[in-house]
Amino acid sequence: MTANRPVHKRILLKLSGEALMGDDAFGINRATIARMVEEVAEVTRLGVEVAVVIGGGNIFRGVAGGSVGMDRATADYMGMLATVMNALALADTMDKAGLVARVMSAIAIEQVVEPYVRPKALQYLEEGKVVIFAAGTGNPFFTTDTAAALRGAEIGAEVVLKATKVDGVYTADPHLDPTATRYSRISFDKAMAANLGIMDATAFALCRDQKLPIKVFSIFKHGALKRVVLGEDEGTLVHV
Length: 240
Fold this sequence. Notes:
This protein has helices at residues 30-44, 62-67, 72-96, 118-126, 144-154, 188-193, 201-209, 224-229, and strands at 10-15, 49-54, 101-105, 114-115, 130-134, 159-164, 185-187, 214-218, 236-239. It is of the alpha/beta class. The protein has a single domain (10-239), classed as Acetylglutamate kinase-like (Carbamate kinase, 3-Layer(aba) Sandwich), CATH 3.40.1160.
């Protein structure tokens, strides 16, 4: 393979809100978010078009709020607002790192961020801007994993990159089972049969139906994002 030639032209990167916490108990760790942005900057320098879907778990967990008596829809809307805060922090960090970022929200907060409009998002990507999709799908009862699958399909991403704390999908929990081995590749059907829990069922089914592969990798592993876009054996590819 030719050095530094990406195998993907356009990617959808799914970041959890928890990933922004670093070692903190909640909120946004500035050093952590800056390091993640540098990983994104590396792949944009290769000419890869990058869109990001960000979660809000570091600020507010919608499901957790609902489980202690709050109305689930209200809790989910609060969670969506948390993703907008994370998206703004991510965009600000990107701007300071020399990237041009645009935040597009699935719920209207036009004084703060622009609304999600698909043709505009595509235009930004083609111009080399990083597009950050906030507020999930704009609907309660859907996760940001589903938002990643939906936006990935809408913008014609070649792959959904699910950034996690582990460097791929394993046969068992590697923290509990030292004999667990990492899958380099696994089909959607086998992953579902093994109940590996890569994404929630709605997101997973959408990716499978749209033939949109998922790559699971560790965002905490230095250079992993670049290795993924270069097609190296990093993480786990879930394919049709």
